[in-house]
C-alpha cells in the first residue's frame, strides 16, 4: 500500500498535477528559440528545387506548364479558339477540342524540381462523337462563362459556375474537372480564369498582410484566425517576425494551437486547410514561403493520407500537375505525427487505430511513388507504418492532456530538430 502511495506521489508535480511525459526533457524557451533562429537563418537561402525551372532541365520528354495570364489575354485566347472552331464548322469538318491529358500515365515526377509535372500528351474531344459530345458541350459552355467573367471583370466560385447550368453539368465534379481542362487548353492558371474556390483555409499568428488594400494583423484575429483569401492576387505586402511556418492538417489541432497562442511562445505562422489542401491555401502557403523566406514544418496525422496531404503541398497533385509550378511549396519538413512517434512518446494502445486494408494498400502504393523514394526518412517511416499496421491522429496526444501538443510535444520536437 505504501509503495502505491509513493508511486502515485512520484507522478505528481509539487502543485499536485500529473507530470506530463517528457516534459522534464524540455530546455528553456530561450534555448529552443535560439535553435529555431539558427534553423530559420539557414532556410533563407533558396533551395535548388525552388530556383530551377523546366526550361533549365533537358528532360527526355517535353512537359506542359501554364502561366498567369491577364484577363484581356484570357479573353483574346478564348476568342481565337472559338474563331478557329467556327471556321472548322463552316468548312464542314465539325469541331473538336485538343485537350491535354491529365491521366496518371501523362504525369512525371521531376526530382530536380521535387514536383509532379504534366507531360505533353493530348486527347481529341470531338463534338460529333457520342462518347464525347456531352463533354465537348460542357467545355464550350465553360469557355463561354469564363469569357463573360473576363468581360465583366468579376470573380465567381466554382459552385456559382455549376449553378449556371445544372441540367448540363449534372454534378459539380464534372464542371470542376472541365474547368481544369479549360486551364490546360488556354495555357493559363486556374486563378487567371477568375473562378475561385470557396474560402476554406485559415491562418493565424505572426503575419501582417494586405487583403484588397486592407491591412490584416493575424495576431488579432481571435482563435478562429483569418480566412485565406480565395483570390491570391489581392494579397500583398507580407510582413512577419516569425521563425517558421507551421502547416497543420486538421482544424482541431489548429484550434488548440491558436487558443494556446503557440505563435507567441514560439514566433510562427499557423496555417490549415482543414483537411485536403485547396488551391487558395496552397497558393497562399507558397507565397508566404517565397516572400518571407521561412521554413515550413508540417503537422499531419500518422496515416497514409496525412503523408499524401503533405506531398500535395510539397510536390503537387496529379490532378493539377499542369499548375504545379505555382501551387507547390518546396522543402516542407515532416515534423509529426510520425509512425516512430507512437512508441517514442508512448502513445497508449487505446489511442492507436488499426489500419484498414485500404490504408495498407495506400501506404504500399505511396512507397512506390518517386517523390517518396527520394526521401529515405519518408520511406523508413512509411515502411514502419505498413509493418505495424497502426495509425494515429494528432489528437492521440490528448491522452496526456488537452494541451500536451502545445506544451510538450511540439516544443520538444523543435528543440531536438526532429523533422524530416
From TrEMBL:
Cofactor(s) of this protein: Mg(2+)
GO MF annotations, alphabetized: ATP binding; DNA binding; DNA topoisomerase type II (double strand cut, ATP-hydrolyzing) activity; magnesium ion binding
InterPro entries: Spo11/TopoVI_A (IPR002815), Spo11/TopoVI_A_N (IPR013049), Spo11/TopoVI_A_sf (IPR036078), Topo_VI_alpha (IPR049333), TopoVI_A (IPR004085), TOPRIM_Topo6A/Spo11 (IPR034136), WH-like_DNA-bd_sf (IPR036388)
E.C. designation(s): 5.6.2.2
Gene Ontology cellular component terms for the protein in this record: DNA topoisomerase type II (double strand cut, ATP-hydrolyzing) complex; nuclear chromosome
Binding-site residues, Mg(2+): 249, 301
Location(s) in or outside the cell: Nucleus
Residue ranges occupied by any Topoisomerase 6 subunit A/Spo11 TOPRIM domain in the UniProt entry: 244-414
BP-aspect Gene Ontology terms: DNA topological change; meiotic DNA double-strand break formation; meiotic DNA double-strand break processing; reciprocal meiotic recombination
All residue ranges annotated as the Type II DNA topoisomerase VI subunit A all-beta domain in the record: 199-235
Active site location: 163 (o-(5'-phospho-dna)-tyrosine intermediate), 163 (nucleophile)
Region (Disordered): 1-22
Catalysed reactions listed for this entry: ATP-dependent breakage, passage and rejoining of double-stranded DNA
Record-annotated Spo11/DNA topoisomerase VI subunit A N-terminal domain positions: 134-195
Keywords, ordered alphabetically: DNA-binding, Isomerase, Magnesium, Metal-binding, Nucleotide-binding, Nucleus, Topoisomerase
Main location: nucleus
Subunit structure: Homodimer. Heterotetramer of two TOP6A and two TOP6B subunits.
Protein family: Belongs to the TOP6A family.
Function according to Swiss-Prot or TrEMBL: Component of the DNA topoisomerase VI involved in chromatin organization and progression of endoreduplication cycles. Relaxes both positive and negative superturns and exhibits a strong decatenase activity.
The protein's name: DNA topoisomerase 6 subunit A
Native source organism of the sequence: Cucurbita moschata (Winter crookneck squash)
Gene encoding the protein: LOC111453780
Amino acid at each position: 500500500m505504501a509503495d502505491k502511495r509513493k508511486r502515485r506521489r512520484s507522478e505528481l508535480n509539487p502543485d499536485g498535477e500529473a507530470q506530463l511525459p517528457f516534459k522534464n526533457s524540455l530546455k528553456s524557451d530561450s534555448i529552443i528559440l535560439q535553435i529555431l533562429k539558427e534553423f530559420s537563418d539557414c532556410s533563407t537561402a533558396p533551395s535548388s528545387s525552388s530556383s530551377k525551372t523546366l526550361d533549365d532541365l533537358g528532360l527526355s520528354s517535353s512537359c506542359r506548364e501554364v502561366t498567369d495570364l491577364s484577363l484581356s489575354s484570357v479573353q483574346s485566347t478564348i476568342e481565337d479558339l472559338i474563331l478557329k472552331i467556327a471556321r472548322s464548322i463552316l468548312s464542314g469538318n465539325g469541331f473538336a477540342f485538343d485537350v491535354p491529358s491529365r491521366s496518371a500515365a501523362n504525369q512525371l515526377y521531376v526530382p530536380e524540381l521535387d514536383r509532379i509535372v504534366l507531360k505533353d500528351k493530348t486527347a481529341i474531344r470531338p463534338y460529333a462523337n457520342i462518347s464525347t459530345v456531352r463533354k465537348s458541350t460542357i467545355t464550350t459552355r465553360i469557355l463561354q462563362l469564363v469569357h463573360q467573367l473576363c468581360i465583366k471583370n468579376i470573380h465567381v466560385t466554382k459552385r456559382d459556375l455549376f449553378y449556371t447550368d445544372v441540367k448540363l453539368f449534372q454534378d459539380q465534379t464534372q464542371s470542376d474537372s472541365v474547368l481544369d481542362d479549360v486551364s490546360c487548353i488556354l495555357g493559363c492558371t486556374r486563378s487567371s480564369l477568375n473562378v475561385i474556390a470557396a474560402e476554406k483555409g485559415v491562418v493565424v499568428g505572426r503575419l501582417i498582410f494586405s487583403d484588397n488594400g486592407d491591412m490584416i494583423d493575424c495576431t488579432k484575429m481571435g482563435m478562429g484566425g483569418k480566412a485565406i483569401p480565395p483570390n491570391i492576387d489581392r494579397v500583398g505586402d507580407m510582413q512577419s517576425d516569425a521563425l517558421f511556418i507551421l502547416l497543420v492538417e486538421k482544424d482541431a489541432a489548429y484550434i488548440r494551437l491558436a487558443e494556446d497562442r503557440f505563435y507567441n511562445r514560439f514566433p510562427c505562422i499557423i496555417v490549415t486547410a482543414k483537411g485536403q489542401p485547396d488551391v487558395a491555401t496552397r497558393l497562399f502557403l507558397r507565397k508566404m514561403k517565397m516572400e518571407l523566406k521561412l521554413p515550413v514544418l508540417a503537422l499531419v496525422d500518422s496515416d497514409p493520407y496525412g503523408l499524401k496531404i503533405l506531398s500535395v503541398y510539397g510536390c503537387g497533385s496529379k490532378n493539377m500537375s499542369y499548375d504545379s509550378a505555382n501551387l507547390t511549396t518546396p522543402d516542407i519538413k515532416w515534423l509529426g505525427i510520425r509512425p516512430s512517434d507512437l512508441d517514442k512518446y508512448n502513445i497508449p494502445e487505446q489511442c492507436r487505430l488499426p489500419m484498414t486494408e485500404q490504408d495498407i494498400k495506400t501506404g504500399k502504393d505511396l512507397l512506390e511513388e518517386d517523390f517518396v523514394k527520394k526521401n529515405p526518412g519518408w520511406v523508413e517511416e512509411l515502411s514502419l507504418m505498413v509493418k505495424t499496421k497502426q495509425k494515429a491522429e494528432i489528437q492521440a496526444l490528448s491522452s496526456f492532456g488537452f494541451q500536451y501538443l502545445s506544451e510538450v510535444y511540439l516544443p520538444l520536437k523543435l528543440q531536438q530538430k526532429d523533422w524530416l
